Amino acid sequence: MTHAGTTRLAVDIGGTFTxxxxxxxxxxxxxxxxxxxxxxxxxxxxGVETVLAAADVPPEAVGLVLHGTTLTTNAIIERKGARTAxxxxxxxxxxxxxxxxxxxxQYDINxxxxxxxxPRYLRWPVRERMSAKGIPxxxxxxxxxxxxxxxxxxxxxxxxxxxxxxxxxxxxxxxxVGEILRDAHPDIPVTLSSEVCPEIREYERLSTACANxxxxxxxxxxxxxxxxxxxxxxxxxxxxxxxxxGGLTTLETAIRFPVRLVESGPAxxxxxxSRIAAERGLDRVLxxxxxxxxxxxxxxxNGAPQTARSFEVARAYRFTKGSGxxxxxxxxxxxxxxxGGGSIARVDSLGRVRVxxxxxxxxxxxxxxxxxxxxATVTDADLMLGRIDAADFAGGDMPLATDKAAEALGDSLGxxxxxTPALAAFALSEVVEETMAxxxxxxxxxxxxxxxxxTLVAFGGAAPLHAAQLVDKLGMDEVVVPADAGVGxxxxxxxxxxxxxxxxxxxxxxxxxxxxxxQRLLGEMxxxxxxxxxxxxxxxxxRASSSAQMRYHGQGHEISVAVPDPxxxxxxxxxxxxxxxxHYGRTIPGVDIEVLTWTLELATEVEAPAPVSxxxxxxxxxxxxxxxxxDCQRTAFVDAAFYRRDKLRPGTCLMGPAxxxxxxxxxxxxxxxxxxxxxxxxxxxxxxxQGEEA
Length: 694
Hints:
single chain, alpha/beta, Nucleotidyltransferase, domain 5, Dna Topoisomerase Vi A Subunit, Chain: A, domain 2, 10-stranded mixed β-sheet, 6-stranded mixed β-sheet, 36 strands, globular
C-alpha cells in the first residue's frame, strides 16, 4: 500500500458507535466505543486512547490518521446545518425549489417534495449573465452584491453559497462575488458552485453548492477541534479524510468541500468488501454493512464497487428516486436503510411491525443498554433470541440487561400482537431482514443486475448476526465474515488509496472534435488533482483514469465512457458505441455524438491483494459450551455450540446451529449452514445440504 511500513490509525464515527483500528507491525488492533453526539471528537479520542493502550503503541509512533464520518449526512438529514444564504442569477431564485418539476410519486396528491436547505427569503438574486459558451452577456451588478451586507448581518448568516447560470463555462462572476463577500465578511465561509461542482445542470449544481455551504461551518469546527485534540495527544502526523468516492483526501480539502464526505464511512466498508472479493477471486459480491443506526448494501463486480457521479440525500420517500436533495459528487453507489441495531420497532395502526428509520442511537441506546431507552430495537431482539451474550457484549465491558429488553419487546410489540417477548423479537427480526432483502433486490434491479451466484460479505457490529438469514431470503449460498468484522469500515480506510476526482463540463461534438482543447483541459484537471493528492502522498506513484459523459445528439442524458489513452475523435467514437451497446444492446447509426463533461481521478497505487485460500483442510472445531439460540426454522430455542473466534484456526470447520463470538460482534451460524475458517482468518458460511459431511 501507499503507506506500507507506517503505523496507521483509522477512525469511523457512526450514529451509535465509533470504531477505531490501528495497523502496527503487521497486526491490526481494534476497538469500538460509544459515539458522543454532542462532541464527536470526545468519542474519537476515547477510542484512540483505548486502542493505543491495548497495542502498547506511543502516540508519536503513529504516522497517519485516517477518518470517516456520517456527521455531514446527519447534519443535512436532521437539518442541523448553518444558517445559509444563496446568491443566484436574477430570475433564477426559485430553481432549487422547482427542482425537476416532476412527480416522483405519480398518484400521491399530497406528494412531499424535498425542502430546499435555503429558504426563499435567504435566496438573493443578482443581475448578471453568462452564456452557455462562457461569454459575458450582462455585466455583474457589483453594487447589488455589496448592498447585501446589511442583509447578511440582519439574518445572522453563517455561510453563503453562490450559484450563477453557466458558471461552469466561465466562473469570473462567481469569483468576483466571492472576493467581495470575503473582503466584507472574512469570517463567513463562501462556497462557489463553480468550485464545488463545475458541471452543467443548474438544479444539481445549486443543490450541491447549498449542501456544501450548509455543512461547512459545522465540519470546519469539528475537524478543527479534532485536529487540535490529536495534536494535544501527541498525534502530530497527517490527518486524511475518507470521501464518498472511496478515496482519501487532505484535511484542508475536506474543510473546503465537506459535501464530499457524505457517506464517507460506508464507503470504507465498500473498499473492504472489494478487497475481500479480489483476495478470494469472487467476481460477484454483495457487501452488507449493518451498524447501530443503518444498514448499507453495495454490489461489487470484478473486485470493484458500483460508482456514480450523483447521489440523493435526505429522501422524503425512503427508496424513491427524486424525493431527496441531489448532490453531484463522486460516490460509491449503495443503498442505505434505516435498519441498524438501534432501529426502533413499533406496531402501526394496521397491526404491522415497523422497524426504523428512527434509531435509539448512542443516547439513550437500546433498552438493554440500561441507558433509559424504553423502545424495542433490533439489538433488544437479537439479545432475546440468544444471538448476543448479555454478559459478554463488547468483550464484557458493556453487559446488557435481558430483562429490560424483554420488557421493551413486550410493551412495544408483544401486547399489541399477543406474543411472548421471544416471538415478538422473532417478528421484529423477520421484518428487518426482509426489509434489507427487499432493498437489496430493488437496488440490483435498478442496476440491471441480479443476486444469483453472489457471495455476501458481512461486516459491522450487527451484520454477522443477520447475514445467514439474509442470504436465505435472497437465495444466495455463501457468506464471508472477515476478521475484525465489527469495525469493517475502519479497516477499509486502511486499505483505501489517497485519491481525488475532478470534473469539468466542456461541450464538444465528435463531428468537429477539438482533441487539443480536450487534452489541455485534462492536463489542467490533472494538475489540480495532483496538488491535492501530493499533500497526502508527496512521493507516491500515482495512477490516473479519465472518463467522459457522452450521448447522442438530441438525447437528454448521457452515459459514462472510459477515455482511451491516447484518444481522438475516432477512438472516442468507438469507446462510446461499445459502452452504449453494453447499456442498451444497440447503437444509433448516423447521429452525431456529444461530449458534455470530463472526469479525471488521480490516486496512489495500492498493493495487489494476496490470494486467500477458500477451501482449507477441514478439522472439526471443539465448542467451548452450548447456549440457547432461537431457531428461525423451528420457531423454538435450540442448543447451539458456542465458540470464541480467536480460538478458531484456519482449516477449522463447524456445523450450525452455532455462535462464534468476538469482541465487537457475533456470527450466527443457523441450522442448515456450515462454517469454516479460511487462510486469512475469515469465517466462510455455506448452506449445508442434507446428508453432506462437514
